[in-house]
Amino acid sequence: GILNVHPSLLPRWRGPAPVFHTILHGDTVTGVTIIQIRPHKFDVGPILNQEPYQVPENSTADELGAILAVKGAHLLIDTLRKLPERIGGKQEQGHTGATFAPKINTNMSWVFWEEQTCDQITCLYRAIGSRIPLKTTWMGRTIKLLDYVGKYQVTDQRHQTPGSVFYDKGSCTLAVCCKDGWVGFKTVLLNKRLTAADFYNGYLHQTFHKNSPSWTAEGRFVSRKEENKELQKSEKSLRCTNTFHT
C-alpha cells in the first residue's frame, strides 16, 4: 500500500491544512503521523507510526511546518526500516478527538473585535499572517493590518469599545481594542503601506480630539459583519424614506 506523512497527531486535524489549524486553535502539542492510505478517503487510514511534538511558544505556522517536515522525514525512514513490524502493529484511527482542517482562505483573515480575544487574534496572526494579512474596515474601507506586536497595554481607559483605536506616539503603534484587551500593529495597508504614524496623521488625527463626540464612531475599526448590519440598516431606512415620499 501507499504511505502518507501527515503533520498532526491523527485523528486530530485531518485534512489539507493541519499545521495552520494547530496554531489557529492554540494547540500546545502536535506531531507527525505515518498512515496507510485508504482508497478514495483522506487521512483516515490505519496508523503505522506516530510521534508527538511540543509546539514551540509563539511559533508561526510556517515555522512549525518546517520543523514537522524534518521530523516527518525522519519518522518515515524509521517506519520503512521496520515496515513489516509497523504494518503488523498498525492501529485503526478512532473517532474520538477527530477534527477537520480545511484549507485556509482570505475570509479567515477578517478580525471580529467584539468576539475575539487578544490570544485568539494572536493565534490567527501566527497561523495565517505571513500569507494572508489580517483585515478590518474603517469608514467603509478595507484595511490590512501588518507588523503585529501582540497584546498591548493602553492606559487611557475612556474608550473600551471593541474596535476603538489608540495611537501610541512613543512606540509608533496603533492599539486596537478587542474583546478582552488591546492588540498592537505597527503598519497598515490602505491603498499603500502606511506606518502607524502616517495612518494617524493622515487619516485618524481629526477623530482623536478629546472633545469630539465622533471619536469612537469615526475612529473605530469595524468588524465586517457589523459593517454589513449597519449597511442593511441604512438601506432599510432609505427604502422607508423613499416609500414615505412616494
Overall description:
With 246 residues, the protein is α+β, with helices and mostly antiparallel strands. The protein folds into two domains: 3-88, 3-Layer(aba) Sandwich (Rossmann fold); 106-233, Formyl transferase, C-terminal domain (Methionyl-tRNA Fmet Formyltransferase, Chain A, domain 2), CATH 3.10.25.10. It has helices at residues 18-24, 61-81, 83-88, 118-128, 196-204, 215-218, 224-245, and strands spanning 3-6, 29-36, 47-54, 134-138, 141-151, 165-168, 173-177, 182-190, 192-195. Strands 4, 5, 6, 7, 8 and 9 form a six-stranded antiparallel sheet that branches. A three-stranded antiparallel sheet has the order 1-2-3. Helix 1 packs across helix 2 (61-81) and helix 1 packs antiparallel against helix 4. The N and C termini lie far apart (73 Å). 29% of the residues are buried. Residues 103-203 form the Formyl transferase C-terminal domain. Keywords: Transferase. Residues 1-79 form the Formyl transferase N-terminal domain. This is Mitochondrial methionyl-tRNA formyltransferase.
